[in-house]
Write a structure and sequence with these properties.
The chain contains twelve helices and nine strands. With about 290 residues, it is an alpha/beta fold.
Length: about 290
C-alpha cells in the first residue's frame, strides 16, 4: 500500500479534531438581505457516525484476531481514523501487529473493568475515529448483554450517533453455530447488526453444513445480518508475516524483505478479502 511506510503502522496515531471535521464547510447557501446584499451562509456538514466492529468467536484458534487484523488493514485504505482495542491479556496479537490498545473489560477487578468501559464509551462519543475495532476475549459471547445490563452501553450508542456490528468468526463445528445462536439471543432487542464469517481455513463453504442448514443462519438473515466467506492465506506467507510481525499492508511491499511470490500471495489474498467483506459494506464499512 503506497501510503503506508514499511515501518509498522500505528492505528492509534491519528484522531479527528474539530479542525479535521469542521461543522461548517465551504458549501455555501445564499441569504438575500433587504438591501439586496447577498450573504454566503455555510452549510453544516453532518457529523460522522462511528462504526464499532466487535469481533467475536469461540475458543482460541477460530481466526478472530486474524479477522480483526485484516479488517483493520483494509479499512486503513479508506481512512487514517481507526482505533483498535485488544481484550486479550495473555496473547495480545492485535496489539502486536497493529498497536491496538489493551482494553481490560473482562478484568476480575470491577473498578478496572468499569474504567475501561468508560474510556471506550468516551472515545466513541468523541467521534474522533470512523471505525473502532474491538478484538474481544477468546470465548466471549455474552459481553454485550453484560455491558447493556450494567451501563445501557449498547442502547446508548444510538443516542450518541454510533453503530455496532458484531462480527462472529466461525469454524465448521456445531459449537460455532451454538455460539452464534447465543450471540443473537444475547443481543435481542438491542441495536446490534451481525455478520457471520465462515473461516475457509477450516474448509470450503460446503464444510459448514451444520451452519448452512441451521435455523440460526435463517434467523441471522431475518434480522438483516449477512454471511460472508473469509479466504485462507497460505501457511508460507502467514509464517513469514508472523516471524517479522508485519501488517498485511507492509507484507506486500518490497521493503518487507519477503520473496516476490509471497508478497504476491498476500496481495492476492488481501484483494479477495476486500471483495468478500465488501459484500457486507453497509455492516463492515469495507468497500471495493
Amino acid at each position: 500500500m503506497s501510503k503506508q511506510s514499511t515501518d509498522q503502522k500505528s492505528i492509534q496515531s491519528k484522531e479527528k479534531s474539530t479542525g479535521d471535521r469542521p461543522l461548517e464547510v465551504g458549501n455555501l447557501a445564499s441569504e438575500v438581505r433587504p438591501d439586496n446584499e447577498v450573504i454566503a451562509q455555510p452549510v453544516a456538514k453532518p457529523e460522522i457516525e462511528p462504526l464499532i466492529l466487535w469481533v467475536s468467536g469461540g475458543k482460541g484458534g477460530v481466526g478472530k484476531t486474524t479477522t480483526a487484523r485484516i479488517l483493520t488493514d483494509l479499512l486503513t485504505d479508506q481512512t487514517d481514523y481507526i482505533y483498535g482495542y485488544d481484550c486479550d491479556p495473555i496473547n495480545p496479537q492485535f496489539k502486536r501487529f497493529y498497536n491496538a490498545e489493551y482494553l481490560p473489560i473482562t478484568s476480575a477487578d470491577t473498578k478496572t473493568a468499569d474504567i475501561a468501559v468508560e474510556a471506550l464509551a468516551e472515545r466513541i462519543e468523541a467521534k474522533g475515529h470512523d471505525y473502532i475495532i474491538i478484538d474481544s476475549p477468546a470465548g466471549e459471547i455474552d459481553m454485550l448483554s453484560q455491558l447493556e445490563e450494567r451501563f445501557a452501553f449498547v442502547s446508548n450508542l444510538k443516542n450518541i450517533g454510533a453503530r455496532l456490528t458484531r462480527v462472529m468468526v466461525m469454524s465448521t463445528t456445531l459449537e460455532s453455530v451454538n455460539l452464534l445462536e447465543h450471540a443473537l439471543s444475547d443481543a435481542q432487542g438491542l441495536p446490534v447488526a451481525h455478520v457471520a464469517i465462515r473461516n475457509l481455513h477450516f474448509g470450503g463453504p460446503h464444510y459448514f453444513d451444520a451452519y448452512n442448514r441451521s435455523p440460526v443462519k435463517t434467523e441471522l438473515e431475518r434480522q438483516g445480518g449477512m454471511t460472508i466467506d473469509f479466504p485462507e492465506l497460505g501457511a508460507i506467507a502467514t509464517d513469514s508475516i508472523d516471524k517479522q510481525s508485519l501488517t498485511y499492508s507492509d507484507a506486500i511491499e518490497k521493503e518487507s524483505g519477503l520473496p516476490t511470490m509471497r508478497r504476491s500471495m498476500v496481495f492476492q489474498w488481501r484483494e479477495k478479502c476486500r471483495k468478500a467483506f465488501a459484500e457486507a459494506e453497509h455492516l463492515l464499512g469495507v468497500t471495493e
